[in-house]
Amino acid sequence: xxxxDLTVHNASTLGRTPLRLLLDTxxxxxxxxxxxxxxxxxxxxxxxxxxxALRGEGLVVHVTSDAGVNAYPRWGAYGVSKAAxxxxxxxxxxxxxxxxxxxxxxxPGEMDTRMHAEAMPEADPRGLADPAAVAERMVAMIRxxxxxxxxxxxxx
Length: 156
Prior knowledge:
Strand order of the largest sheet: 1-2-3-4
CATH superfamily: NAD(P)-binding Rossmann-like Domain
Order of helices and strands: EHEHEHHE
Strand content: 5-15%
């Protein structure tokens, strides 16, 4: 396997469903959400960013959510983790600015996925985006990422 040129942090968890108010969220549940949605991307970026910096190129993409910028009741653990992930990407971008390693945060919007159905079982899936179409838009964005400001947050 050759050098890693692109890393996409797409793994995510909502935490326990049905989603709970923060007052009803167990500390262990918050820790698990932060471990998957924030600490995991941090660890993987630490592993790949050094070699990217030595080569003078590389792209790290964080997949986020509007729950990271908007406060929704019952989305506390997930929202906090995505807000932190957004900021983590901006910090990485600032710290590695001169190395050629770039960071992009992408909000794919609401998609017709099992995760969305678990969070919002009452939602009509016909009003949700097709994950394959979102993936195609994300690939196009990645291909044109040199035209996007380092550390930017974009909707797909």
